[in-house]
UniProtKB/TrEMBL annotation:
Catalytic machinery residues: 2-3, 58, 263
Protein name: Formamidopyrimidine-DNA glycosylase
EC number: 3.2.2.23, 4.2.99.18
All copies of domain Formamidopyrimidine-DNA glycosylase catalytic, residue ranges: 2-114
Subunit structure: Monomer.
Function, in words: Involved in base excision repair of DNA damaged by oxidation or by mutagenic agents. Acts as DNA glycosylase that recognizes and removes damaged bases. Has a preference for oxidized purines, such as 7,8-dihydro-8-oxoguanine (8-oxoG). Has AP (apurinic/apyrimidinic) lyase activity and introduces nicks in the DNA strand. Cleaves the DNA backbone by beta-delta elimination to generate a single-strand break at the site of the removed base with both 3'- and 5'-phosphates.
Cofactor binding comment, as recorded: Binds 1 zinc ion per subunit.
Cofactor: Zn(2+)
SMART domains xrefs: Fapy_DNA_glyco, H2TH
Residues bound to DNA: 92, 111, 154
Originating gene: mutM
Stored InterPro entries: DNA_glyclase_Znf_dom_DNA_BS, FPG_cat, FPG_Glyclase, FPG_N, H2TH_FPG, Ribosomal_uS13-like_H2TH, Znf_DNA_glyclase/AP_lyase, Znf_FPG/IleRS
Higher taxonomy: Bacteria, Bacillati, Bacillota, Bacilli, Lactobacillales
Organism this protein belongs to: Lactobacillus bombicola
Stated family: Belongs to the FPG family.
Amino acid sequence: MPEMPEVETVRRTLLPLVKGKTIQAVTVWYPKIIASDSEQFIQQLVGKKIETIDRYAKYLLIRLSDQLTIVSHLRMEGKYRLVEVNTPKDKHDHVQIAFTDKTALRYNDVRKFGRMQLVKTGTEKEVTGISKLGCEPNSSEFTTQYLINTLSRKKKNIKNALLDQTIVAGLGNIYVDEVLWQTKIHPLSLANQIPQFQGHQLHDNINELIDLAIKKHGTTIHTYLDANGDTGDFQKLLKVYGHKGEPCSRCGVLLEKIKVSGRGTTFCPNCQVIYK
DNA sequence: AGCCTGCCCTGGCGGC
DNA sequence: TGCCGCCAGGGCAGGC
């Protein structure tokens, strides 16, 4: 499931594959993937050139000539790969962007949760979802004081607070479980009851974890692959996610898994402190 | 306004 | 072996 480190890895691997290419034709096999009007999406892309790819939180921003941007969210299982244009369509290929050099960018998504849409460059922050995003880990806005102040105003539990993209943009289920373990905070702790010293620690750990995960090319749990079809490496470093029933690497007590608002949540019942 | 629930989707797996 | 139901979960609509 791509979170910010995975999306950043996709951005880095995808860019050299498509940069400078000119779009010749677009095929949409499953129109619901296109959040904007899919006929317009197809027509407006033809003839445009891919200039660069940016990322904002978990969103890819594919920059095109003529001030156009494809806003793309991979959600759970979206993947991009570059193919020869006549490569047979995979069952889960939903969009093809064919270039003038006979290659094509394929968007593949088993669950069909991912979305893309075309906007005028510069207006992407008005897109539903992006408009409400909070600041990103390792950004200048994401200060210790920002995190502490924001959490102190939230009555929900810390697990939900960190998954809330309007508070911190880019974390998902895996990295939230990891960072809470790292900081020794129980996932059901109330956000506004986290003591200051833990708020500090949480801030630093979020930055370090995201930074390290990007260096390791993300985490491959289920099917995540980058644009070259390679897996990430961070899964080897996971301390709690996917380790239910195994001894905590810090204290040896068996890790437990619970549901928090429908999200699977793994934690150490011994060394993660609950603040209520 | 803030918070929570259900829904979108499909494949994989456990249980019988 | 086959079928059924459940689980995975990011983000959004809708409800309270």
